[in-house]
Amino acid sequence: MLNELEGKTFRVRSLIDYQENAVVSKTLVDRKAGTITLFAFDEGQSLSEHTAPFHALAQILEGEAEIRIGDETIELSEGENTIIPEDEPHSLEAKKRFKMLLTMIKRE
After folding, report:
1. Which of 63, 79, 94, 106 has a CA-to-CA distance to 41 between 20 and 30 Å?
2. Cα(72)–Cα(4) distance, rounded to whole angstroms?
């Protein structure tokens, strides 16, 4: 996907579409150092609690997301971001459909 985008102007959120009753993902960059993945969550869809061995920057591109990190729940809307610490249990839920760009950086 990255090769198709290099040197071109694009809107990130236009690279993925919603699907009814589904979570859709598209990997834009997949390297040893980390990944950049685009997600589209239909309303009511979620990712169950999990951990990852890298820090993650979650950027909400449109809609509204509820992200639980450890014991804290935060609500994010278009233009808002949060950092999910490495190895911290977290989950996501779409109270309304949303698109998110997730950048994960692996530890050294």
Report:
1. 106
2. 38
Q: Which two tokens stand for residue 32?
A: 């040893």
Summarize pLDDT for 31-70 with one digit per residue, the tens.
Answer: 989 999 999 999 999 999 999 988 999 999 999 999 999 9
Prediction pTM value: 0.91
The Cα–Cα gap between 47 and 24 comes to 11
SS3 108: coil
Spelled out in words, what is the top-level CATH class assigned to the domain 2-106?
Answer: mainly beta
Q: For residues 50 and 102, is the Cβ–Cβ distance under 8 A?
A: no
The end-to-end CA distance of the chain, in Å, is 25
Tell me the torsion sign for CA atoms 33, 38, 25, 62: positive
